[in-house]
């Protein structure tokens, strides 16, 4: 950059000079010193504009120096750094995180003051960077490891501190150990530090799921039916009334037989059918009252059906199933029924459908010991409701109770995943129009059917974290059962003998070593290793 020239200063001239300038003759002799001073003054005046000129320096390339290394310093601790040259200046980006002390011109002491990260530069007298580093300050890493070793001696846990964050890695024996390690580290480092756990289980965790399906169903069916049949044997105009079909043969004035659909004479070797009796079958449900008499010159056959059905159904299914964490397990206790399928061109194939008590679930054990469950229990049974007949094949319907959901709970805790409370009522009246509405006599011309149902259903799931046990600690439902022999069944009316059946458990049997005549050794008995006896 060149500055603009300053305006020339006004020349200060002596008296002879002024005289010459204005055309006056100059004097000689004593005026020599005056002329020398004037010359010096003129030179200074001429140099004054040049003094304001500034010449630009040659341009240099700019450079950025990044930290050459990274060091980790624990809180309250420090490191002594030996520099490769003589230090003149030191720069610390954030003295709240770390600070420095110069022991000499070539040694620097860096110590941590607070959690975080900062940068330190050291330069020489020429401004050259001789040492630089990123300094990360965290809690006492050795103390965290020592705390975890004291609290969980069987666990293999490593800790690392990065920018106000503590990372836990390694393996533990159980999910509770992982949660305990995270809780201890959080209490040690304080609220300002964040703890991230990446702990894994040393052995896979097994989850046993117990599902209880309890259902109570009550039903009530009440039916009152009026049946009529008449026979008119008079001459002239004949009249008849009939309601429902409740007899297989009606012979006016003949023998009345109820509860049967046929009557066979006992005379004769081959037997002959008796056509002189009135045959009335029994009611499908309930009781049937039958009467036969003459009324207004007609033979009248009447029947009153009174039926009431009360049903109570109790269902309790408790399937139990064990699976590894993250794996899917399925369970079915029931059967399969065939369903015909048409394949075209007259061909028919059979497909089997499952029914019974089934359970499918996928457990996932979380780090804090809780269990996430994707569960699908189902209870189904064959039913005549919804049954169809296709090409001569009778296909039953299914009565199904099914639930599918995802829940999260601890070991041994229970959760009701499904519930049902259903009430239904149905009333059906079949009557003769007009006559069925009469106050008293209308009951003779109508039939009433009433149905009511109540259902309560509850499905409860309970997961458990389980470990394998010895076979001798397992109790079976067949333990202590021994069927009775023929003499006990006939004379004692007993179903079991009363003596528990022996149960052989895996055991190690002693081995007897004998010395043969040839000097060799021979073994008798079983090998000394576990075995199962049946």
Strand portion, in percent?
over 45%
Q: Quick one: how many beta strands?
A: 27
User: Structural class per helix/strand content?
Assistant: mainly beta
Let me know the average pLDDT: 76
In this structure, how is the largest beta sheet organized? 7 strands, antiparallel
Number of helices: 5
Q: What percent of the residues sit in helical stretches (DSSP H or I)?
A: 10-25%
The coarse silhouette is: elongated
Quaternary structure? single chain
What gap, in angstroms, lies between the N and C termini?
A: 108 Å
Radius of gyration: 55 Å
Low-confidence stretches: 1-36, 50-57, 263-272, 504-534
Written description of the protein model:
With 534 residues, this protein is mainly beta. It has helices at residues 15-21, 32-51, 141-151, 175-189, 486-490; strands at residues 70-74, 78-82, 89-92, 98-104, 107-112, 116-123, 129-138, 156-161, 165-172, 194-201, 206-231, 242-243, 247-249, 255-258, 277-280, 287-295, 298-317, 320-324, 329-344, 347-365, 371-390, 393-402, 405-409, 415-431, 446-466, 512-515, 521-524. A hairpin with a 5-residue loop joins strand 26 and strand 27. Helix 3 (141-151) packs antiparallel against helix 4 (175-189). The longest helix is centred in the N-terminal third of the chain and has 20 residues, at 32-51. The chain is elongated, with a radius of gyration of 55 Å.
